[in-house]
Each structure stands twice: as C-alpha cells, then as structure tokens.
TrEMBL record:
PANTHER family on file: ELONGATOR COMPLEX PROTEIN 6 (PTHR16184:SF6)
Top-level taxon: Eukaryota
Pathway entry: tRNA modification; 5-methoxycarbonylmethyl-2-thiouridine-tRNA biosynthesis
Originating species: Amanita muscaria (strain Koide BX008)
Coiled coil (residue ranges): none
Record family assignment: Belongs to the ELP6 family.
GO biological process: tRNA wobble uridine modification
GO cellular component: elongator holoenzyme complex
Protein name: Elongator complex protein 6
InterPro entries, per the entry: ELP6, P-loop_NTPase
Amino acid sequence: MTPTTTTTILPPFNLPTPIILLITDELSSPADFLLHRCLHQHLKLDKNNRVVVLSVSESLARWKSVASRSNVNLDNGSVEFIDVMSHVSPVPIRPDTSDTPSAFKANTLRPIFDIVLKSLNGSSEVNDVAGSSKLVILDDISTLEWIGFTSDDVVRFVRALRGACIKTNATLIVRHHRVSNDVANDDLFSHLYQMCTYHLEVRGLASGRSGSVSGEIALHAGPGTVPTKDSVNLLPRSGAMQYRLTDTSAVFFEKGTGGAVL
C-alpha cells in the first residue's frame, strides 16, 4: 500500500497515510495507548474524518472513557464501533478434513467484514463525506485465534480487510499480542508482517519495570515498503524510542536523554 496524502499519524513517529500498520505488544507493555492516541488524533484532525473500531476484547464504554479524558466525543457519528464478539461465536472443534469449511467461508467472520465494507463504501448509517479520511482499527486480532479460529481463518479475514482499505484509501491498524519472541512459531505474526506497510513493536524494558519509563517502541518497515528520500525514520530495537504512560496518553523520549520529552 503506497501512502497518497501528506497527512501523518501517531506523532512523534509521523507515519504517512493511508497505510497498513501492524502494532505488536506484550503482556508487560500493552499498546492500548497507541490505538487511543491514533483514534483521538484522527478525529481532531478533521470533523469529517471517519473511524471504524473493531473491538474484540474491549467494550465501547472503555473506549468512551479513555476518549473523554482527551476531550474527544465518540457519540457524534464519526465513529462506528463494532463489538466483534457479538457477531461471531467461538469455532467448535471439528475434524480436520479437506472439505471442512473455513470460518470465513462459513460466514462466522464474514458478517464483520460485510459491516466494515459497507461503512468504507459510504453506505452505512454514518454519513460519509467525500474527501474525508478513513481509519479502521482492529483490536485485538490475537483473541480471534485464542477462541478457536485458525491462523488461516484470521489471516484470510485480515487480507480481506486490507484489500477493502486499499480500495477506499483507508488506513488499517491491526494490534497483535505477542506471547512469545519466537517469530518462527508465530504463524499469525509472520503473515501479518508480510501484509503491513510498517510495524510498531511495543516492548517492556529488558531491565524490568521502571517508574520513569513504561516501555520502548521500535519501528520497522514492512517487506514491501520501498525506502525513499521522504521515508519515515525507522527505529531498530537498539535505537527504540522509550515512553512513559500518563493519565491521558503517553510522552516519548529517546534513550539516554533522561526523559526529555519529544
């Protein structure tokens, strides 16, 4: 996916749009604050901007509570909140046979995709405005796998979302919880990484918890992202940016700067 606008998201990373952004996190360093930060910024940037939130494990009440602390109103028609678990059911264990339909083909994930597609095409109950910027947030994809969907089911679903976002020039953000650093055994991550434009990797500190530092964030380019003179400044793990959570969001600073805020 090639960015086509001058609008950027998630300062201080300043990622271009539209893109496919993969955000990974760990139990010790959840990336909720990045999702909320991006949502709030997107809505404040233009009153005509639209957001579709696909929430698997967090309630609408939680999203509203966090937004209210940043003076963002989620009830003004700009946000379409989809409670994924109310539209799908855990997949029963079935014999692994060649004629067993996948969850997506069996319409267990298809209803979710259809809702998103309808919204992106401007025919949902939320009025679409020509020229407005669209954002789709999928949080969190890992739970779909944990409740019984196969990696193939989930990958197929994300691939369909990616295709729809590309066609409508919408940015897609997908959060994936990493339970292991063993990439070779994380098939879902491998597939998601192949599809992304950029990958934000949120990790806890190797030295353990700190009162002044909550964690660190590395920024990687996706396999298909071609560097240009205007490319985003990538951050390898060795040069990861550190952050400290606050009541409303987070502050960011470079390693070794003593917490000097960027």
